[in-house]
Amino acid sequence: MALLYVLAGIIILLILILKKLNPMLALLIVSILTGLMLSMPPEKLMSSIGNGIGNTLGGMVMILSLGAMVGKLAEDSGAAKKIVFILINWFGIKNIQWAGLLTGLIVGIPLFFNAGFIVLIPLVFSIAAATGLPKLYVGMPMISALSITHGFLPPHPGPVALAAIFQADIGRILIYGLIISIPIAILSGVFLPRLIIPISHKFKTRQSVSIQVEEGLPSSLKSFAITLMPIFLIAGGHIGALFFHGQLQKIFTFLADPTVALLLSVILILFILNIEMKKAMESCVEGVKSVAMIILIIAAGGAFKQVLIDSGVGKEVELIASSWHASPLFLGWAIAALLRITLGSSTVAALTTSGMVMPFVHSGTSPELMVLSIGAGSLMFSHVNDTGFWMFKEYFGLSVKETFKTWTLMETSISFLGLLFVLLLNTLKLGL
Question: What is the C-alpha to C-alpha distance for residues 72 and 54, in angstroms, rounded to an integer?
Answer without folding.
Answer: 26
